Amino acid sequence: MSIQGKKITVVMFGFLIACISGLFIARYNMGGVFLEHSQNIKTLSIFLVMCTLIVFFISLTAGRYKDISKIIYMGFAVRLITLMAIGFFGILPYTYDSGWDGLAQHLLVNWHSGSWDGAFIESPNVRYYTFLATAVYYIFGYNPIFMMLLNVLWGTLTIVVIYSIANLLFDKKSAIISASFIAFWPTHIMFSAMNMRDSLAVLLMVLFILNFLKWIKTPKASLLLNVLLLIIGNTLIRSQNAVIISVVAAPIIFYFLFKRSDPYLKPIYIMVGIVGVLGAVAAMYALGYSSYLDIDYITREMNYRADGGAAYLTSLNYTSWLDVLLYLPLRFIYFLFSPFLWDVSNTPQALSAIEGLLLMAMSVVVLRKRKMIGKITKNKHLLWAFVIFCIIGLGANSIIDSNSGTAVRHKLQYLSVIFVLYGATKYKHSEEQ
Fold first, then answer.
1. Main-chain dihedrals φ then ψ at residue 402, nearest 5 degrees
2. Residues 201, 413 contacting (CB under 8 angstroms)
3. Who contacts 136 (Cβ-Cβ below 8 Å, separation ≥6)?
4. Which tens digit of pLDDT belongs to each residue from 198-226?
5. If you ran DSSP here, which 8-state letter would residue 89 be given?
């Protein structure tokens, strides 16, 4: 048996002992999602088999990325422990989104009866994530713990992707620091252990960013196909991503295609680009995504998301696109750094406020070291594409979001820009010392 094989065997054996022990403790003490929905030996067995397969896959991944293998294992461990706390002990204040689960449970009954209609779900992103949850329940049986376990896997893989982005832009040591931030970022850990779409949404977004940057660096047809497929995946999981990605990525793709084309073919590329833009606009209108650019939709969504005790800037109302532009800087700051200490009214908000302070400190360091970041990057074109895309993504979400609880989830898709840039400054600072 090889050294890597022995490592995998040891990890899996230790995991199974810990998992079985935890299950028995949970079975005879406290109740959570797992015990609430099912207590039979079949569900327990399926869960253990899924855990074993996921641990095996994580071990193979860690073996491939040896520089961050320990970070991958620890990141997976803290997410799995969080899942145990939620699913078996029920000791965390927020367990899983019962809305997703209720829709999937309702749809599951239809599937078992032979009806595959999902038209009762109005929102596209709700529909497709619910289809995914229902498919998992259809295969393994109904229990939210199965979707939560998959979210743990997706959250762990996000660590690897952010490491790859940072390594592509800078170097391995900077990438290790960037991967460490996402591995132990509290809100990402929490949402990676729940039955919510955020873990998958973050993974799909950073995968898109990675493949997009790779395509800019090496324009291969296979990478462009990956980019297009990930645009579809991001759109299905969160429909407003269709507009954000199209507005930002499409011009960059056209720019690099035009720049690298033969001089005699540039007029053709211009015509193709014009047709492509018109076609994309037509497709957005045909599929209903153009509504996300409507001021009435923005106002309606902003008012809807301002409900609850974590709302902020409720007095700012849009009457035109000029108001959107004028309020954008302030809303951007609140979206990225809230809740602030003066807004804290409970423990979860206090923890989020600490994250906001940390993000603020990291952002200040990045701004101070911006010139040095430009000097040490491997490719300035890639760096600018990465920063512009994430900043516009944060800005687009800040226009609508008016609730720090919602903002905490939505900004996770783009926080890689802070982690990666701060990782570069931190490594350079350590080297100078």
1. -135, 25
2. yes
3. 146, 147, 150
4. 999 999 999 999 999 998 888 788 888 88
5. I
User: How far is 73 from 61, CA to CA, in rounded Å?
Assistant: 10
pLDDT band at 158 (very low <50, low <70, confident <90, very high): very high
Q: For the whole model, what pTM was predicted?
A: 0.84
Distance CA 142, CA 127 (A): 18
Query: Which comes out higher in pLDDT, residue 407 or 272?
Result: 407
Q: Which of 198, 259, 240 is nearest to 385 (CA)?
A: 259
Which of these, 378, 33, 313, lies nearest to 175 by C-alpha position?
Answer: 378
Q: Is the dihedral of CA 404, 146, 61, 63 positive or negative?
A: positive
Mean pLDDT throughout 263-277? 64
Q: How far apart are CA 244 and CA 232, in angstroms?
A: 12
Q: What's the CA gap between 388 and 169, in Å, rounded?
A: 14
Q: How confident is the model at residue 294 (pLDDT cuts 50, 70, 90)?
A: low
Instruction: Tell me how far apart the alpha carbons of residues 191 and 350 are, in angstroms, rounded to a whole number.
Output: 17
Residues recorded for the chain: 433
Please name every residue paired with 311 in a beta bridge, in sequence order, or none if there are none.
Answer: 403
The encoded tokens of residue 85 equal 């706390």
Nearest to 129 by CA among 306, 44, 273, 137: 137
DSSP state of 85: I
Amino acid identity for residue 415 in this structure: L
At 380-425, the pLDDT tens digits run 888 988 998 899 889 888 888 778 778 888 899 999 999 999 999 8
Q: Rounded to whole angstroms, how far apart are CA atoms 245 and 173? A: 29
Q: What tokens appear for 317 in the block?
A: 């109302």
The secondary structure of 273-284 as a DSSP string is: HHHHHHHHHHHH
Nearest to 395 by CA among 417, 379, 377, 380: 417
